[in-house]
Write a structure and sequence with these properties.
By secondary structure, the chain is an all-alpha fold. The protein has helices at residues 8-24, 53-75, 79-85.
Amino acid sequence: MHMNDIAPEHYYLAQLTAEVRRSWIAKGQDKVKTKEFLIKFVPKKRKVKKRSPQDIEAERKKRLEASKSAWLGALGIPKEKWKKET
């Protein structure tokens, strides 16, 4: 199902919401339309940031070190011992 596909449940909830809204206002109850309560989702446009190969490699190394630190910490292996063995 796509983000803006409307299922029968959506119409039902919109009708309930419209009825609640109509009960809150004294005049102009006929102006409250069910379609006003159907939510439309608009995807946010993202900016694509161009990166150099050096930036990509630096990011990869940073993530590798973070992952390695997490695994070594979880296993209880000191970094110094790991560096000596590898």
